[in-house]
């Protein structure tokens, strides 16, 4: 026999608790469990919100980078058109001078 068995033997048998006592204990237990669950849920929610915020920021950075890239591409195309137009204007000017009769 172990020490626990002898202690229980000394206690003897006791009557089960009243139904109201069990209900009250159950209510207290569930209140504690619910509080723990809510605390864990809030912590997970805060972590999730932080993750969502980070994702939104990353998406915004990507969008901003795309807009910057597009602006640079547009600017390059505009510069190229201006260069092409300048070259065309110069060719026309040269052609016009070549076509004029000499002195």
The geometry reads as rod-shaped
The low-confidence runs, each spanning 5 or more residues with pLDDT under 50, are none
Largest sheet composition: none
Counting helices, strands and paired strands, the structural category is mainly alpha
Element string (H = helix, E = strand): HH
Portion of residues in helices? Answer: over 70%
Description:
The chain contains 2 helices and no strands. The protein is mostly helical. It has a domain at 20-85. The radius of gyration is 42 Å and the shape is rod-shaped. The model has no long low-confidence stretch (mean pLDDT 81).
Give the SSE layout.
Layout: H1 3-11, H2 19-99
Short structural summary:
The chain has about 100 residues and is mainly alpha-helical. The protein is built from 2 helices and no strands. It has a domain at about 20-85.
What are the main properties of this structure?
2 helices, rod-shaped, mainly alpha, 103 residues
């Amino acid at each position: 026999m172990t020490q626990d068995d002898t202690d229980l033997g000394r206690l003897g048998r006791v009557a089960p608790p009243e139904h109201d006592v069990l209900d009250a204990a159950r209510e207290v237990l569930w209140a504690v469990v619910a509080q723990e669950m809510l605390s864990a849920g809030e912590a997970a929610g805060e972590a999730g919100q932080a993750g969502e915020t980070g994702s939104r920021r990353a998406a915004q950075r990507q969008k901003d980078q795309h807009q910057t890239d597009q602006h640079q591409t547009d600017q390059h195309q505009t510069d190229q058109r201006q260069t092409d137009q300048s070259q065309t204007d110069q060719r026309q000017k040269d052609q016009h001078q070549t076509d004029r009769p000499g002195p």
